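input
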Amino acid sequence: MRSSSRGDFPTTGLGARRREAVVDLLSSFKRALHANEIAERLGIEPSRYSRLQRVLEELSLEGSIVALPGQKFRLSSQQVEARGAEREGTLTVHPRGFGFVSLGGAAEDVYISPEAMGGALHGDTVAVRIATRSRRGVEGAVVRVIKRRHTRVAGVLRRRGRSAWLEPDDGRVRGPIVIVPREQGGPLVPPDAEDGAAAVVSLTRFPDLPEENPEGVIEAVLGAPGDPNVEVAKILMREGIEEEHAPEAIAEAEAFGDEVPAEALEGRTDLTHLPMPTIDPEDARDHDDAVWVIREEDGSYRAWIAIADVSHYVRPGSALDQAALGRGNSIYLPDRAIPMLPRALSSNLCSLLPGVIRLCLCVEVELDPAATVRRARVIEGYIRSAAKLTYPGVARALGFTAEPPRSPEAEAYRNDLQVMWDLARLLRGKRMRRGALDLDLPEAKVVLDPETGGPVDVQKRSHDPGVAKAYQLIEELMLLANETCAQFVVDQSIPTVFRYHAPPDQAKLERFATMCGELGLAFDPEDATDPKRLSVFLKKLDAHPQKQVLHMLLLRAMKQAVYDVANVGHFGLASSAYLHFTSPIRRYPDITAHRAIRAVLRGERIDRSEAAIERLREAAITASERERKAMEVEREVVDLHRALLMRSRLGDIFEGTVTGIVGTGVYVNVEDPFVDVLVRMESLGPDQYEIDDEGLRVIGLRSGDRIAIGEAMLVQIEDVAILRRTIYGRRLAGEGASDEPKPRRLRREAADGRTTRRVKSSKSTRTTRAVKAVEGGKRGKGGKGGEGGKRGKGGKAGKTAKTRKKQR
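output
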């Protein structure tokens, strides 16, 4: 997305964007343009003219444009035929009415004016046709909507006489939304619905023209805006997330009973002689893996990773299967989980609780003293977990930390845990040497009042590095199981769902390289095409003061991992074959992997038909979409609690770090409480600020004052917008900040149903976030790791115009 009002010609090494800028411009003229006119129309400064000449020469040599006498250029006939073709992307609408369509890859976003938006709404997948290039960049028009993003919209209900409408919470959604009766002649809203209440509508008619408003029917009137329970319910209803399972799915789950019957054990291997513990966060809601490791006399290792056999209960075509596929994964909120499976399975029959028999698929691996795999097999068996351990307890027992209280259960396992840690450390070393990425970014933990349900604190999760090492122990064993199973299905040529992580976005890597250069770090974007070279670079950042900011920027250049039926490798793990196997209670793709492996173990016929592969492909696409939705919901709920918490901190002053720059201002990350504060451009100081060409700093046009990503900033909290989940602040001068005036007047915000204090603006000058984000192992509610197992509730390390936390 564009971030500067200065010249529209990218000049920061983004080769693909420079070339596209020229081609887009020439496509909008029927006549040839002189090089000087091209430079003028693209806003290129004289000092950058030589770069334009090189681009023109490259395009001429490859045949994209034609060079004419007198330094004139026109589009080639092949390009003329290609221009005007439709392109597909996601529409992001600005609250002021215009928008951008993101085409993905290195392609520049397409500016869409309000008049050219047609009936498209924020978040829709649309087809656009490029029209021209202007000072705004590449411009185009929406020609049709391919897929609607929103069918439900949350907002504030308004009533006037016999009319009713919804004012959307999200200023990017076109509104107001006209309320229509669900049935002809029926009421618009429930009789007891009050004006100003929080509500959710389902859109029934989408606009055809830019000046038209959508229409919808009331789904629910929830209560007063700003109430924590109301706001969370609104998010879930808006996204179509049902906490209760369908009665058919619940009935199927409960029909299995509370215990594993003896007949279910027939033909399975008895593994109850192994005293396997589960190791999870203190507040884990399910336990789908147990582990055991022994060291032989010659120094070699044998590891058992037992995973709950969910596929025994969730059969293809059943109501349970439809429920699991539809949900895709479990969702973790600060106060509860919304499980993928009914609780009769997720919290009982499929959970590896201590002292009870549970069915499992167990990966048994033999490794030499250097942790190289010698042999591996998957066992269809059953276990009796011997203990339920926690990460803090394990960390204390192993001497990694002195902070958590001792756990008698973990202390009894101390010698066995040491063997597990020795193997995990070897596995991690091998993984790092082959090029697996280790991005260290913190996550947020919301602490709630047990009586009110409101937030009392937002903290960084896993402050203790010793506890993080306990997470790594399980992470490495989960990764070992996932890769072993992936190689098993590849060797057997079994169709299943793999986890795919593509190499980073080249254009974003160029921007990251610019940031590194300004910090005195040498980074070649070409190194990022090879995970091993990129991993070497990350090691150099370990002692850098801007390590977390650099990790965050690099994460933004990473593409999000997805599910696919093709095994094309995993960049972040530097793995040639990877799938999800270790968390079938909370992820549907793991169930598909279990089914494929069980079929081989039982000697069943493998369905390799096109129809079967297509079903798997559809499941992979659905799982990817549901995963993204879950991440967005979890993130928004955390942001909601952050905003609710900071309502009582208006006027307080914090020091933070600039982590993101957007068109409206800069985001400052505060460590304690762990929140992000948006300092709008007008709150930065007595100057007019603009974003530089690289999008890495803002500059005062009169004073030359510069504020860059990674710099420290003192901020005073001046406002909180609950409905926007945003905390606003203003920048303070460094020294004497404590003498700044405190809030002095109250302002009522009826839309939020709250009272806030507005800080008077004053003039100030400038003062001087294991593979967790990229496919780690088991991550319990935001713990270290990511892809091996438990997924956490997640926070965010900062925001940019298109920041998304990417779970690999």
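quick obs: The radius of gyration is 28 Å.
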